[in-house]
Amino acid sequence: MTVQQISVFLENKSGSLVKVFRALSQAGIQLITSTLADTADYGVCRILCDNPDKAYSVLSQDGFSVTKTPVFAIALDDQPGRAADAIACFADGGISISYLYSFLYEGKGVLIFRTSDLDKAAALIAEKGLSEAKL
Amino acid sequence: MDYSPYFNPEFELLDRGQIEALQLKRLQDTMAHCYHGSPFYRKRLDSIGVKPESIKTLDDLRRIPFTTKQDLRDTYPFGIASVPLDQCVRLHSSSGTTGNPTVVLHSAKDLHEWANALARSLWMVGCRPEDVFQNTSGYGMFTGGLGFQYAAELLGMLTVPAGAGNTLRQLKFFTDFGTTVVHAIPSYAARLYEVMCQQGIDPRRDTKLKIMAIGAEPHSEDTRKRIEDMLGVKAYNSFGMSEMCGPGVAFECKEQNGMHIWEDYYIVEIVDPDTLEPVPEGEVGELVLTTLNREAMPLLRYRTRDLTRILPGKCPCGREHKRLDRMKGRSDDMMILKGVNIFPIQIETILAQYKELASDYLITLDTFEDNDGMTVEVELSDRANVDDYAALQNLNKDITRALRDEILITPKVKLVPKGSLPRSEGKAVRVKDLRKKY
Ligand SMILES: [Zn+2]
After folding, report:
1. ipTM, 2 dp
2. Counting one residue from A and one from B, how many pairs have CB atoms under 8 Å apart?
3. Which residue ranges make up each domain of chain B?
4. Chain B contacts of A34, Cβ < 8 Å?
5. B421 CB near a chain A CB, below 8 Å?
6. Under an 8 A CB cutoff, do A9 and B415 touch?
7. B9-332 homologous superfamily
């Protein structure tokens, strides 16, 4: 099971970031988390929210360049080293991770990662008994 | 050594009446040559019932239809020539692979005449056989390379065909060979000075530079003055275009007030680009040129698309060949960057090959630290995967490489969100020119 993440292409201007979040809040969309990757020329804002389909169409209509991407969300219990264990699992299983990030959601740690090996990752998650986060 | 101030006194010193008499004779010859040698011109002239004999006065020139760049494209590669190919010894072709490029053919005599016109120009500004001439133009298809090479050799200077780039090597040649005359595009002249400063070279103390020919790139009077101040040279504006041969069409004399266009080679007209009627003397319009002593590929009333004017009055240097003012711009969308002619359609055609890109783009030409450059901003389409950061970077690199292959200049490519580029009256603005010029 994957969750849909929204990626928005931004010119490197904080003003455009404000516009993204305004547009989402005006559409009544709840943000779960967001990250911003950035270079000298432009940035990509990655967003998890309660209604990715709606977020996609809202942002797209507002003239943003948007992509919807399936990512995996793993719940981490609060024992130390769980994130390392999870990542080791994928590394050992030969899954290449494009990027990952983590955050706290309703008191629980959540690890998000993106891979193009969707089927292989899903199988590995089931095999290793990793629990998926409910967002 | 004592020299005449003139390279071709028999042509340079003609008065207006003599110039016009010579032009009429040469126009009649050129018409006959085109009519009998070029199927393209024969068909065109027949279609309006104009024969070589129709040209009785210089005013009859206006009965001849204009020739356009599109005509050159339509007849690509050899269709407009007035001699068989076995009489041609060189061709120069425009850059680019999109759209039809254009070809200009030269006979051996054409090459000699080209060299002569430019040698005459260089002599006019003080170049003499004891000078050492260094050419920083690219050779090959770019006419500033071979054009200046042949002219400098004909004049008798020792030539240093350095070619483009490698500034440290250029500077070493200056100091080792005692270069006195340099041909460079204006932005490169500034670059030379910048690197001299970095290397601790004082152009006045450590080099013998005295004359610079600058051209092929629009620049202002201020830019010229700055080049002169920086390098301790006299800089003279040079004008030419590959359709006419290359550099040597018009050149400033020592007065530095307008470029004498060699009227034994060309008939010059300035027309309103919309009505194609002549503009009043001294007003700005499109430059139209008729070649008068070309063998391989004469052109009748060629619309250059360059906007300029004829400076009124007589030049104190004594030459009565008309003077063109600095180019004021273009009547089409061609850009000139670092001496390279670029049309937006070339860029558009490349961009259209990427499904990740939308159709809107903006080309900005700007000057950074005396260096002219191009930025291409292009909007992403809905098919771009903006989550894949590496793919975006690669896309950027791919586009940059493809554009460089097409226009021979490396632009800075910026991907921008769809709909973010400025539009005026619903139509996207394609080119913004912020360079210091005109
Ligand atoms: Zn003069």
Report:
1. 0.85
2. 55
3. 9-332, 340-433
4. none
5. no
6. yes
7. ANL, N-terminal domain (3.40.50.12780)
Whole-model pTM: value is 0.78
Query: Mean pLDDT across the stretch B397-424?
Result: 88
List pLDDT tens digits, range B263-286.
Answer: 999 999 999 999 999 999 899 999
Phi/psi at A9 (5° precision): -85, 130
Four-residue CA torsion sign, B51, B52, B58, B61? positive
CATH number, domain A2-68, options 3.40.30.10, 3.40.1190.20, 3.20.20.70, 3.30.2130.10: 3.30.2130.10
Question: How far is the C-alpha of B401 from the C-alpha of B406, rounded, in Å?
Answer: 9
Q: Shortest CA distance to B57 belongs to which of B24, B104, B22?
A: B24
CA–CA min distance A98, chain B (Å) = 8
pLDDT band with cut points at 50, 70 and 90 for residue B437: low
Residues in chain A within 8 Å Cβ distance of B383: none
Q: Does residue A80 have a pLDDT over 80?
A: no
Cβ contact A42–B414 (<8 Å):
yes
CATH architecture of A71-132: 2-Layer Sandwich (3.30)
Alpha-carbon gap, residue B353 to B398, rounded angstroms: 11
Cβ–Cβ contact B389 with A under 8 A: yes
Distance from CA of A37 to the nearest CA of B (A): 9
pLDDT of A85 above 90: no
CA-CA distance, B79 to B387, in Å (whole number)?
51
- What would the mean pLDDT of A100-128 be, rounded to a whole number? 88
Q: Please say whether the dihedral angle defined by the alpha carbons of residues B15, B16, B17 and B20, taken in this order, is positive or negative.
A: positive
A63 at B interface, C-beta within 8 A: yes
Chain B: give the shortest CA distance to residue A79, in Å.
31
pLDDT of the residue at B177? 98
- Say whether pLDDT at A124 is over 50: yes
Chain centroid, CA B70 distance in Å: 17
Distance B335 CA to ligand 1 centre (A): 29
Q: Where are the domains of chain A?
A: 2-68, 71-132
Separation in Å, CA B210 to CA A48, B223, B229: 67, 17, 11
Instruction: Provide the CATH topology of domain B340-433.
Output: GMP Synthetase; Chain A, domain 3 (3.30.300)
Residue of A6, A10, A42 to mutate for B, most B C-beta atoms under 10 A: A42
Least confident range from A11-25, B9-23, B49-63, B419-433: namely B419-433
Q: B381 vs chain A: nearest CA distance in angstroms?
A: 7
**What are B74-119's pLDDT values in tens digits?**
999 999 999 999 999 999 997 656 667 899 999 999 999 999 999 9
The Å distance, Cα B6 to ligand 1 centre, comes to 12
pLDDT above 70: percentage of residues in chain B:
97
**Are B416 and B380 contacting, i.e. CB atoms less than 8 angstroms apart?**
yes
